[in-house]
Design brief:
The chain is mainly α. Helices cover 49% and strands 9% of the residues. It starts with 23 loop residues before the first strand and ends with a helix.
Length: 101
Amino acid sequence: MSKHTPGPWIAPTGLFDNRTDGPRIVADNEIICAVETVDPDLDDETNDRRLANARLIAGAPDAFEFVEFVALVSCGGASSEQIQKMGFKALEWLAKVRGES
């Protein structure tokens, strides 16, 4: 059993940490971490990268679950229905990390 804060973790748009002015990652109103500052003096590409980092960190619990599932499948312990369900969850995770959802 993992000891990390259970998901879902989210990186809400516009929710920044007061100490760093960077995006926050939260779960059940608990701050998991704050990402490097989004700075209006920096170029959009740098700030976009920092927001993308926040989304990637927020997706960590889903990625952890997916890796556990891949291990199960590789040992022959998953049904075709479970495999399809996890495939859809993987697509949702990718959209979340890309900022498409």
